[in-house]
Amino acid sequence: MSDLGGLPSPSADPLGSLGTQTVAIAVEAPTQRVAPARWRLLLRRPTFWAGAVILVFWIVCAVFGRSFAPYNPLAQQLLAANQAPSGAHWFGTDPLGRDVLSRVITGARTILIITPLATILGTILGTALGLAMGYLGGWFDTVASRIVEAILALPFVIIAFLFVVALGNSVPTITVIIGLVFTPLIARTVRAAVLAERSLDYVPAARLLGERPARVMFAEILPNVMPAILVEFTVRLAYAVFAVATLSFLGFGVPPPTPDWGADISANYTGLLAGYWWQVLFPALAIASLVVAITLIADSIEQVLAS
Amino acid sequence: MAMFLLRRLGLMVLTLWILSLIVFFAGQILPGDPGRATLGQFASPSAVQALDHQLGVDRPLLTRYLSWLGGVLHGDFGTSYAYRSAVEPFIRAALINSIKLALLAFVIVVPLGIIGGVVAALYEGRGVDRVISVTGLSLASLPEFVTGIVVIVVFGVTLKWLPVTASAGQGSGVLSQFQHLILPAIPLVLILFGYISRMARAGTIEALNSDYTRTAVLKGLPETTVIRRHVLRNSLLPTITVIATQTGYLIGGLVVVETLFNYQGLGLLIYNAAKAKDFAMLEAGVLIIGVVYVLATLAADLLLTALNPRLRIGGSG
Question: Alpha helix locations (H) across chain A?
């Protein structure tokens, strides 16, 4: 890791106080010097490019979809209901005669609003909890670890599902629930990373200099576990898409008629057995492409940071 | 060894107890009155109150938790609000159905995942490895209902090879039951393949780079013998743990797969219970899932210790 390190410079440590400057530079400089080289490595990975192109495509759809979708995603044409894919409707129409292609394009919006916000929330809370567990240790860590482990004994889809049933399925509620469900998962990863850092010399050094625990945690340890948190964030982002889509499919997504991939699948699923496969297959493929794209990006980042 | 076992069991009981607290109190925050949910919106308030009293949901929270926990410890999960009969037979039938589905998925995926991972490791960095790794990673990230729909469209609707509902009729033979379970098992297989092959790959690569493998090669053993006797034995240990921990995720996936294929398992039971606000059923179902997960993790730990003497010494020290 440090073999790629360049020259240390005084500006390499924006967070350190004067007293800890030398210590902090010694530890932080390698990660900061290496970062640009690492990102260039990322650009050489075909899987990263494949993932990034798909993700950018869906972001464009989420932001500008309404202006270039061929039809209004909410416009019903009951006389043209359940039509198979054709020149006029590339992805066919749904039972209300709405254009499936337009609903797939504009349906990117809800999932791309909920998932990043939920993942950011979970990452912030999980990082704070993980830092506290790993650094403070003692009874706090013991108790918190037990609770985290008990929660992780339940699949996160089931926990999220229970809370959505209890608290409702508006966009803010789903966002907060997914964020909270991810908190213990992220806390566990951050805790492990912090335990590895804690034994390094700079932590006792900072403590001996009289820094308060909060400062040691957030200003000294946090920058050094950032790569692990970044990987965790991208991996969880893919999981969030997974979770949000699954909740929608189970009937706890955004309420109709807002276009939403999971909700559209849930609403038209019975038509599948009647042969109207296009109403569910295309939204399903949209979800698949988004999850795979984020997973490929996450994997590329992980591989590059590990190399 | 005995100390190690005792500590493991103690931790397990503690985890289960916290789990019971979480499950019970999570059940309590579900809105809606069970009596009202059962009797419908046109029932009179006095009838709702009477039913609430009969179900015991008007007692204080702590009393209810203690009596619920006491019952659970004796195998009594309480009375379903929706069916007005004991929860236990429903849970038992659903659990058996889910186990059938999960077993089928495991029987297919474990050999497949291990072979995939080992092959990827033997060709590390080459085309075969990239294809297996990227495919596995992508499949593992796809929600079960997405792969389920693709599978239904291809095999059920277009090719018409297999039935698209999971439950064979009453009293149907083993073969027919099996046939109905193949399609629902595929989404579970696809999602687990990624995890298991990834772990098997990592374990094999580590074993391939080890000193004992180099020694075995240098002393002139044939390649197949080295792989079979030296590499695989060590590389499959971490894979066992992953298989056990994936049991939990497998059950999470069951909620979706069972809903998609309308299969009367634990997942569908929980889903329906949550929709009907049937707390007793819901709590029992979720608790059983937690118990299965904790037991699977314990079994994996014990198996790992039995297979790997080095851990046994480390564990007791």
Answer: 21-43, 46-68, 100-106, 108-136, 138-152, 156-167, 171-198, 202-208, 213-215, 222-247, 261-273, 278-306
> Which of B143, B248, B270 shows the shortest C-beta gap to A246?
B143
Q: For A150-165, what is each residue's pLDDT tens digit?
A: 787 777 777 877 777 7
Q: Which of A161, A167, A281 sits opposite B274 (nearest CB)?
A: A161
> pTM for this one?
0.79
> Are B19 and A288 within 8 A, CB to CB?
no
Domain extent for A281:
46-73+89-306
Predicted ipTM of the assembly? 0.76
For residue A257, is the peptide bond before it cis, meaning its omega torsion is within 30 degrees of 0?
yes
In a domain? residue A215: yes
pLDDT value of residue A183: 92
CB contact under 8 A, B290 and A47: no
Report, as an integer, the average pLDDT of A256-269: 84
Kindly list the residues from chain B whose CB atom is less than 8 angstroms away from the CB atom of residue A238: 141
Cβ <8 Å between B141 and A155: no
How far is residue A218's CA from residue A214's CA, in Å, rounded to a whole number? 6
> What total number of domains does chain A contain?
1
Interface A-B: count of C-beta contacts within 8 A: 134
Q: Do B157 and A296 touch (CB under 8 A)?
A: no
Residue A109 lies in a domain: yes
Over residues A297-307, the pLDDT tens digits come to: 988 888 888 77
Per-residue pLDDT band for B1 (boundaries 50, 70, 90) equals low
Strand partners, B86: B79
Distances in Å between the Cα of B88 and the Cα atoms of B38, B51, B94, B299 are 19, 20, 10, 25
Partners of B252 on chain A (C-beta within 8 Å) are: 154-158
Here the CATH number for the domain that contains residue A291 is 1.10.3720.10
Residue A29 lies in a domain: no
Query: Can you read off the two tokens belonging to residue B185?
Result: 């098992």
Contact A287 B146 (CB under 8 A): yes
Chain A hits for B149, CB-CB cut-off 8 Å, are 265, 269, 272, 280-281, 284
* pLDDT tens-digit readout, B155-185: 877 777 777 666 666 666 777 777 788 888 9
